[in-house]
Amino acid sequence: MLGPVILAASRSDKMRRFVSAAPGTKQVVGRFIAGETVEQVVPIVRETVGKGLEVTLDVVGEDITTREQAFAARDAYLELIEHLKELDLGARAEMSVKLSMFGQALEGGHELALANVRPVVEAAAAIGTTVTLDAEDHTTLDSMFAIHEELRKDFPQTGCVIQAYLFRTEEDARRLAANGSRVRIVKGAYKEPASVAYQDKAEIDKAYVRILRILMEGDGYPMIGSHDPRLIAVTQELARRAGRKLDEYEFQMLYGIRSDEHVRLAAEGHRMRVYTAYGTDWYGYFMRRLAEKPANLLFFVRSMITKN
User: Fold this and answer.
1) Phi, psi (5° rounding) for residue 6?
2) Residue 183 in contact with residue 225, Cβ under 8 Å?
3) Which residues touch 153 (CB under 8 Å, ≥6 apart)?
4) How far apart are alpha carbons 308 and 305 in whole angstroms?
5) Quick check: 169 and 209 in contact, CB under 8 A?
6) Is 231 helix (H, G, I), strand (E, B) or coil?
7) CB neighbours of residue 100 within 10 Å
8) pLDDT tens column, 41-77
9) What is the DSSP code string of 44-113?
10) Which residues does residue 159 pair with via DSSP β-bridges, in sequence order?
11) What DSSP state is assigned to residue 33?
12) How many CA atoms lie within 13 A of 78 on its CB side?
């Protein structure tokens, strides 16, 4: 079971330095990270939308230790929104944010994160798009859901993410579905203890289907975050049973993974959104991508041992 080991390494400064210095890192990181600056990512947004796809943009970075860093994260998203305004894409290009970047873990972090994310949500609404609050480890979720509820009072289109491997998620899904929320469901990519999360892949998949059924039968807008062909097929069947039209839910997949499937689903008439991350603080995001799928790790190892 390499996944838990890699997730533990995602919090190690020593491993961060080693991976960053490895000769093959830049090649592999480029598979998952669309660029380091907003200027680099804008052409990729244009290209993606030109294929009939949609995007959600994530400025990567989580290890915030000062209020100044939290303010800088807020400003990075506001800069992104200015560039999206020029593209005039509306809801075809939204944003995903991690509240840890906005200072959630600092002293007074709940209030600080809310104060920092609100102007981002306001600016997004002003150009016709929206923001989704990403889920992080289980200790942060009560704060995330409270901020989500607060933001929806003025911006009901604000979305949030739920993670199938957590025991609590079925209850969260029922509440969010009843409230008519935009909800992205993912399997989960953080190292969580057995006291709060399923550890077996088969159990996680079963939970995912149970939660997906709740969302499809509810009043919200489900966003299916998965590359798993079986879950994609299950989604289509549950949507059919629930009487949902193709524009009443969407698929979301990561930039650089199963790109042909992105295009195929869009060609069938589905809304297909590509989760596109960019920025210089890529390490935590990158390591979770390696942990999710052994093939990603093998790709990385081969690149590390290949001489330039």
Assistant:
1) -65, -40
2) no
3) none
4) 9
5) no
6) helix
7) 23
8) 999 999 999 999 999 999 987 678 999 999 999 999 9
9) HHHHHHHTT-EEEEEE------SHHHHHHHHHHHHHHHHHHHHHT-GGGEEEEE-GGGGTTTSTTHHHHH
10) 132, 182
11) B
12) 14
Joined together, the tokens standing for residue 229 give 């062909």
**Both structure tokens of 164:** 């199938």
pTM for the structure as a whole: 0.87
CA atoms of 213 and 207, how far apart (whole Å): 10
3-state DSSP assignment of residue 256: coil
Residue 44 near residue 276, CB atoms below 8 Å? yes
CA-to-CA distance for 222 and 227, rounded, in angstroms?
Answer: 15
CA dihedral 99, 103, 107, 110 (to 10 degrees): -30
The phi-psi region of residue 277 (left if phi > 0; otherwise alpha if psi is between -120 and 50; otherwise beta) is beta
Cite the active site residues: 134, 184
Pull the structure tokens for residue 105.
């873990």
- The residues facing 56 across adjacent strands are 94, 275
Please give the C-alpha separations between residue 10 and each of 103, 260, 291, 294, in angstroms, as whole numbers.
19, 29, 9, 16
The first and second tokens of residue 149, run together, are: 């509820």
User: And the tokens for 192?
Assistant: 């969580």
Tell me the per-residue pLDDT of 109-131, one tens digit each, with 9 for 90 and over.
999 999 999 999 999 999 999 99
